[in-house]
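MODEL INPUT / OUTPUT PAIR
PAIR INDEX: 1
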Amino acid sequence: MTDEIEFAATFARAIVDGDSNAAHEMLSADLGLALAATDLLSQFETLAEDMGGVTGVGTPMVILQEWPDMSPSDRAMVYVPLEGDVFSEAVTVTVSASDDVLCISGIEWGRP
């Protein structure tokens, strides 16, 4: 699971750093078509504004490796804490693999 955790952390760091293009390149083909890089950044900025700004990315953790509606390509759901001055939030991503290449196939902003 180390690869999936590091991949999720890299995605979170890219979006926190404002590099929505790099983060967008990590999305699955379907999610990339459904969500433009500018929309991805906008979703993050809304969350960041609500939490008073993001100061860093915490230690990610796998929260699920199996769930009822997972697809055959899904590997794990990874919870990535987003640290802030006022309070912390998180982004939970579904890490999948297409031809053994990791991608983000689902994003949930905020703590579950």
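PAIR INDEX: 2
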Amino acid sequence: MSSVPRFGRSKDREYEQAATKLANGQTEEAIDLLRGLLSRSPDNKNARITLAVALMQAQDMPDKNSPLTQEALQQLDAAAAMNPDDAVPYFNKGVLLRNVGLFEDALRSFEIAVNIEDRMALAILHMAEINYELERWEKAIELARLALVRDPGLEESLGWVRVAMRKAGMLDDKGNVIVKPDT
């Protein structure tokens, strides 16, 4: 059995163990390990982000007012404060906010993530989908196109674009693109 080389990262073994438990569906155990790790190393940004993810996974029906959601938001805010140039905490905060129905707040978090890392296609995809859910057809289509430019592999995730184009008046009933005259 071969092991993954750690290159002097033995201090990260506890984090790696917690992340593995989370990936294996052992959410409560991961939360306990991550909280313990953070009590000893409060500046561990990755542990904060992973704890936030675990706290949201621990909820069957995430709610914006639940203590677990509030703790997750605090962890993500702390991680972002530690390194404001890292898009990951903002991306994860956007996902969390979207999952609890705070769409405008989620859009702001995704926008921050994209402003930091402009090639973050998944953040752009989330923004497109939120705009679709909010029936902002043209903005949804614009963002969907941008997401595809950033990552052509996202095409399968964009099955809703034709519906948005039809609702925005960009497609006729036969699926043909309607060319609007310049005004």
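PAIR 2 NOTE: Residues 67-82 form the longest helix (16 residues).
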